[in-house]
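If your schedule permits, I should be very grateful for your opinion on a structural question. Kindly check, if you would, that the fold set down in the tokens agrees with what the sequence suggests. Thank you for your consideration; the sequence and its tokens are set out here:
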Amino acid sequence: MTIARMAGGDEVSEDPELEIITVECIRTPPEHMSPDKVPAKVEERAMDPSVKEVLSKTMLEGVETVWDRLEKQQPHCKFCESGLSCQRCAMGPCRIMGETKSRGVCGATADLIVSRNLLDQISTGAAAHSDHGREVAETLLLAARGEAPMYGIGDKDKLMTLAKEYGVGTDGPIEKVAEDLALAMLEEYGTIKGELAMARRMPKGTIEMLEELGLMPRSIDREIVEAMHMVHMGVGADYRNILSQGVRASLGDGWGGSMIGTEASDILFGTPQIRNSRVNLGVLKHDHVNISLHGHNPVLSEMVVKAAELPEMKQRAEAAGAKGINLVGLCCTGNELLMRKGVPQAGNHLSQELVITTGALEVMIVDYQCIFPSLPNTAACFHTKVITTSPKARIPGGHYLEVNPENAFEQAKKMVAIAVDNYPNRVPERVLIPNRPVDAVVGFSVEALRAALGGTLKPLLDLILEGKIRGAVGIVGCNNPKIKQDYGHITLAKELIRRNIIIVETGCAAIACAEAGLMQPDAADLAGKSLGNVCRSLGIPPVLHMGSCVDNTRILVLAAELANLAGVRMDQLPVAGAAPEWYSPKAVSIGSYFVGSGISVALGVMPKISGSPNVIKMLTEDLEKAVKAKFWVEPDPKKAAAILFDHIETKRADLGL
């Protein structure tokens, strides 16, 4: 048996498969970050005042961050940026300039290379979110069988509602109902019945359109596997057929795997309700043991919350000299806790290194997705320990404590203990915690919206039909260091609410707007007159927090329910989507399942498709003829707001509003 160690020689885990690993603090050259350059670079990189404050400290200390690494990568390869680089077989790699007669070694054209690369991105993103959903459904199954200590049924009403939707009997013990539902959900991954249960939530007209086009997903895994088969050299050769499979695979994610992840999480941990919390780096505390929960899966983070609340842990913290234990969220694991427990959120995607560089973080606990592999290197510059928990996402230099539903609570207790014992190692003179946390109202699940509106979404639909709310836009996606952190999200949201368009948000976009104060009821003053009056009458902000990135399916459900109430297809609604700062394959799948469902999407970052005018035309024009929705690409969020407003006004006119 070998012992994995971090820099400094701390024993971190016992695992026969792990080697002894040390990581070093990576610093940028002093001349690269001279004090006179810091203020200007900080202004280029971020909007949030708390981020700017910590980023300045980080840069002056020379601790490397994502922005520094982006600078070192410049200039980016033009072949890769345009999607014209192919590494699908050993005859390559091939790169072509995109002329009609140019081909790769196998004969692949620019259209084929670009479309295969895009389908690869879609299927990777769909696999990531759907696999997340599988893990939550498996946890529900084990909890129902009594094999997952400390897990239970957090929302019995939702369990019964979903059971009926899946055709599962609701008589007998609740554990039996939960077991049968979990099995029915898991069966959807490889089902041979040829359809997904929750896809039937779409309006009848939308379903008929997708069935006629052959785009209704047959099962979750089948569509992903078929997509990966098609991108293999010598299989898919027609870019139109390849992109159609991308839509179908993404729909299997949106109306299947991701939706299962959301619904099963609600059953296990409770459906989010409207609550108050706080956001930004200022939620860290000087006199508490600080633990950040980072990643995407609430199966672990919910157990850490329980462990941190144990009296013996609080006593242990006091014995270490702290006043208590302070949990903070990052990215979408943080969003899950924010809306269910009110756990404050320290930041979004580009803030993950900065939480460590405050010097006040004892432990960062991660599961998977959107986690920088460099985090242990950042932590090596401070006293922070990074604990990895998933066999899918081991990181060299991190403490590895594998977590599964059977051992999650016991492992969570170990993690909290590690954090408490690390508190005395904090170096006070290196600590910088911005003292400006921002209040935010969060937790607007579809169920919470219904409850706030008297048990039905009809009042919301009426406000849209009357024109008091012109329409709705879902702003989603993470940060991209190519764009000033949060600028796209915040600017687009402000421009749209000014035009009386209500905003629903998830993931990192939601945290960006929360940090900007747009999730406070007072933000109604920034909205147009009619939307502002609606928000003031209901006591809500004009930008609504709907959860983590897997919870984009809540937006799908909301749109489907409004369409069903109005008796129209989803594409006929005055709604749209936007991802101003997206970066990951998950975002490609998300955008595709929104467009496939009939909701057009504006992107702020160009996908790697510019090498094929035919692929661009299909996504921005031809797709609209089939599914009545399309993509726009507009980097300027003010121009994107104008495009989205015109789209919504056109939809209103088409409905005779």
In short: Residues 1-12, 14-20 have pLDDT under 50 and may be disordered. Residues 48 and 515 are 7 Å apart (CA to CA).
